Amino acid sequence: MSQPKILKGIMTVGFWTLLSRVLGMAREVLIFALIGAGPVLDAFIAAFRLPNMFRRFFAEGAFNAAFVPMFSKRLEADDRPGEFASQAMGGLATVLLILTGVAMIFMPALVWATAEGFVGNERFDLSVDYGRVMFPYILLISMAALLSGALNASGRFAMAAAAPVFLNILIILALIAAYVLNYDAIWFLVWTVPLAGAVQLGLVWYAAHKAGLNITLARPRWNADMRNLVVVALPAALANGVMQINLLVGQQVSSQFPNAVSWLYGADRLYQLPLGVVGIAVGIVLLPDLSRRLQARDDVGAKAAFSRAGEITFALTIPSAVALCVIPLPLVSALYEHGSTGRSDAEAMALATAIYGLGLPAFVLQKLLQPLYFAREDTRSPFRFAVVSMVINAVFAIGLMPVFGWYAPAIATTVSAWAMILLLAIGARKFGDVARFDNRMKSRLVRVIIASLMMGACLWALQWMFASYVTTTFLRVAFGLGLVGVGSVCFGVFGQLVGAIKISELKSTIRRG
C-alpha cells in the first residue's frame, strides 16, 4: 500500500466509522430519552458489556494483533491464506460456543463479578435476564471481526467498516417501533442486539467471498499454524483482557452509586465518537500496512506511514479533546437532556465527559503506537505495559472512590491511559528510527496544539456569553450543534494561520491516492 493509499484507507474507514458513531449517538439519544438514567439502563449497560468484553478479549484482541499480520504475510506470499483463515475461524467458533454455553448457565455469577453493587436490588435480576438474551452476540460478532480482519489485510476496508453501522440502524428502528407501538423499549433493545450480530456476520461473510477470500467454517485442527497463532495471539488477548478489567473495575465502583453506571456510559459514548473515527480508523489501516512494509524491510516507508498517520491523528484528536474539556455541558445537554433524562443527569455526564476528554489523546495514541509492536508479532510487551496500566487504574479508581465518589473511575481511566502511552513510547525505542516521528510531524504537532487552544478560548467565550439564554430543548440542541460548527471553523482558520493544516497538501495527497 503506497503512502497516499494510507490516507485513502483511513478516509474510507473513517467515513464508515463516523457514520456508525453518528448513528450510535442517535441510538444513545433515543435510549436516554425513552429509558433514561436509572436501574433499567444500568442493568442493560452491565449486561451488554458482557459479550462486548469477551469480544474484545477474543476477537479484537487476538485477531487484530495476531491474525491480521499473519494473514497479511500469507496473502502477500500467496501461502494458503484462505485455509489458514478457515482454520482460525473454526477454532474461534468452537471456543466461543463453549464460552456462550457456560455464560448462559452461570449468568448470575457473571453479573455479580462485574457489577457487585447491583446485588440486593432490581438491577441484578434485570441484568441476568438481559444478559442471557444478548450474550450469544459474542459468537456472531467475533466471527465477523475475523472476516473483517481478513478484508482489511487485503486492502478492502469499506464493508468491514460499514458492517457495524447496521447494529445502530437496527437498534434505532427497534426503539422507534417501541415508541410508536407504545411497548416497553428495553425489550425491543435487548432482542435487537443478537439480531444485529447475525446481520453483521452475514454482510462481511458475503463481502469476503465476493473479494475472492475463500474463508469457510472449517473443522478446527491443532497444527503448526494454529499453534503459532495461539502463541502470538494469547498475550494480545490477555492485554485486551487487562483493558477490560479496567472497565470492570470502573463498573464495580460505579455500581455502588445510583445511576452512576448510566452517567459514565453516556460520557463514554460521547468521547468514543472522535476516538472511534480517528483511533480505530488509523489503527485498522496502519497495522496491515506496517506489517507488509516491515516484511519487505522498507523502514523508510514504515516511518513515513507512521508519521503521516500521526499527523492525521493529532489534527483530529487534539481539537476534539479541547472541545470535550471546554464545552462538555452544552454537548451533553444537546444530546441527552430529553424525555426521561433531566438536567442533573446531564450535569453529571458533563463532568465525566470533561475528565475523559483529558485522556482522549492518550486513548488514540494507543491505537497509533501498538501497531509498531503488533506488526513485529511482539504482543508480549504491550501485555506487560497493560498489566501496569491495569494496576494504576485499580489503585486510582478504588483509592479515589471515598474522595470523589462515582466519577473516580473516569479519573482512573484517564490517568492509566497516559501511563500506558508513556510505557509504549519508552518501549518503542528499541525499534529504532522507524518508531520515531519525522521532523514534519513534530512541527505539525506544536502547531495543532496552538490552533486547538485558540479554538478552545473561542468556545469558552461563546459558552460564557450565551449559555444563560439556552432555556428550551430546541435551543439546547441548536446551541450544542452551533458550538461544534463554530469550533470546526475556528480550528480550520487558526490551523491555516499557524500552519497546522495544509489544505493544498491534503488535496494533493487525496488526488494522488
In short:
The chain is mostly helical and 513 residues long.
Which descriptors apply to this entry?
single chain, 513 residues, mainly alpha, 83% helix, 0% strand, disordered C terminus
How many strands appear in the DSSP assignment?
Answer: 0
The overall average pLDDT, rounded, is 82
Given helix and strand content, the structural type is mainly alpha
- Overall structural domain count: 1
Radius of gyration: 22 Å
Major β-sheet profile? none
The rough form would be described as globular
SSE arrangement, N to C: HHHHHHHHHHHHHHHHHHH
Count of helices? 19
Helical amount among residues, as a percent range?
Answer: over 70%
How far from one another are the termini? 10 Å
Unreliable stretches: 508-513
Could you characterize the architecture of this molecule?
The protein is mainly alpha-helical and 513 residues long. It has one domain. α1 runs antiparallel to α11. The chain starts with a helix and ends with a helix. The C terminus is likely disordered.
Detail the topology: elements first, then pairings.
Layout lengths: L2 H32 L4 H39 L3 H25 L1 H8 L7 H13 L2 H17 L4 H5 L2 H17 L3 H26 L13 H31 L5 H36 L3 H28 L1 H9 L6 H32 L5 H25 L3 H20 L11 H28 L6 H26 L4 H10 L1
Helix pairs in contact: 1-8, 1-11, 2-3, 2-5, 2-6, 2-10, 2-11, 3-6, 4-5, 6-9, 8-9, 10-15, 10-16, 11-12, 11-14, 12-14, 12-17, 13-14, 13-18, 14-16, 15-16, 17-18
